[in-house]
Amino acid sequence: MKVFKSKLPLMVMMLVSAFSTPLFAQEDVFITEYLERLESSKAYLILVAEIMPEDQYTFKATPESMSFAEHLMHIAWAMDWHSQSLMGGREARDWNTDTELQVADKTKEEMIAKIDETFDKTIDFIKNFDVDRLGERLDYFGQNRTKRQILLLLADHITHHRAQMLVYMRLNRLKPPRYVLYQ
Hints:
Layout: H1 2-51, H2 68-87, H3 108-127, E1 137-140, E2 143-146, H4 147-171
Antiparallel strand pairs: 1-2
């Protein structure tokens, strides 16, 4: 009985480790797979932005729609807000006064550079994000969501706006680049 008591703490630690390691490994896999998707999404979006002629960046499908350029920069703003502010706790940019992630007077080249930079910052943020915090919950427009869900919502948001940009290309008789799987 004495031997059993002396090994009890070791056995408890082994049991806890056996059950917790797979949970942490799943989160690490989620981040790894998410980053792979985000890298592909970045490459595809930049290709879309490069193909659209600069004189068509102001194109809107309807008067109340965002322009091609506004969709592009809105993606940058949303990536910054979801990662740096919502998940990271940094104060959100004021859309009405902060022009860094708005079209403003940016050229096509400057907008592409800004979206590239914002993707890189978002990817770096996620690479360094503590996976133990993915289960933390927060308010997302009145919905109680985990930070893991926020990442999924961000990916959906990028796809949503990029899809509209692809339609704009078609409306301007341009052939969008071939769809890249898993992004």
